[in-house]
Fold:
Amino acid sequence: MNRDEIMEILPHRGSMLLLDTASLDPDGTARGTYLARGDEWFFDGHFPGNPVMPGVVQCEIIAQASCTLFAGELRGRTAYYAGIDKVRFRKMVRPGDQLEVSAKELRRKLNVVVVQGEARVNGELCASGEFSFILA
Structure:
């Protein structure tokens, strides 16, 4: 999916639409990419002279890619965060880095879905965790 196709399943717009591409593998793994250009709002103050992508932004990119897992269920609905667990940050993401994210559904109960997601740059793990969503 390109950005226009992503906007068909996500309500995010402007600076909050953080995925450049998204796809769903045959094995059920959601994938997404984001090129950290360096001119984004979050690099401006985090940190001057030493720009680092905030961990919460990495989590948001993983979450947006995760929505590819239930894209067919999102038409007219929204996936809201219900929880973020076991999140770890292992490597800094800097301007110029291509963030590659993946997510796989772990479990589901009624309208709550729990996903295992991770973000990598050049194959190196930057962030990982479990993300829960309510499909409302």
